[in-house]
User: Fold Universal stress protein family protein from Caloramator quimbayensis.
Amino acid sequence: MTDDIMVCVTQQRTCERLINKGAILKEKYGSNLYVIHVAKEGTDILGSKDEGNALEYLFDISKGVGADLTVLKSRDIVEAIAEFAVRKNIGHIILGEPPKEYKNEGIIAELKSKLPLCRFYIIPANELV
Assistant:
């Protein structure tokens, strides 16, 4: 694994805090920064106008910190993220904290099991970076 960083985002403007955390690590390690959004196959990537605007906003934020934003479609979101991480030789993964109503880590636990050599950063919803 390298010190390259992957930030996983949804179509929400609040994901800016995750990209900012990635930018901090990028500076610290002098590494590449990738931002990724995976949409479930069979859904509209841009969703509603608000979701499209949010994704465009995140694209601009990513570009501003020197990151590539990749949007993928997949039947298996976890597998798509894991494959991207392996292909790009990612060493650090940044994710947002799951909603409080989730009883387990869900996607986070699955990614940790598929990518045991990666370091994970789970950013709380109320944390500003």
About this structure: The two ends are 25 Å apart (CA to CA). The beta strands are 5-8, 33-40, 68-74, 92-96, 119-123. The domain at 5-123 is CATH 3.40.50.620 (Rossmann fold). Residues 49-64 form the longest helix (16 residues).
